[in-house]
Design goal:
The protein is flat and about 55 Å long. It is an all-alpha fold. Helices cover 55% and strands 0% of the residues. 11% of the residues are buried. Helix 1 packs antiparallel against helix 2 (48-84). It is built from 4 helices and no strands.
Amino acid sequence: MKTYNSSLAPRFSQLLAQREAELRAILRSTDDVPGDAGEADAHDVTDFKEMASEASLSVVDEAQANQAAAGLEQVLTARQRLHDQTYGACLDCGQPIDLRRLEALPATSFCTACQAIREQPRPPATPTRKPARAS
């Protein structure tokens, strides 16, 4: 398995900077979206189908903005790890992250094994019952 080493820092710095710019552009574009459909001028006639379509697009835009914000946070954290020379090591187990994974997901913080564990569904918590009181 090939792993990250400090000689690759300029390449990954560039990849992370490009991703940061993309995410910031997404966030700017969602900020530029005009107000919601409820702000229509009194003279505008909007049918329900159009209003539903606008509402759906608003939900999609909000989800995209949330995803971009989370991605930006990951990129900024990865850039800090690159600066601190801790980039390329899994935050859970400390083992080196495979270079192929870093090339595909430069902002990743976890090796494949630890990421798989994090993505496993967790069973719902079972409520604890208090023992019945004796009378």
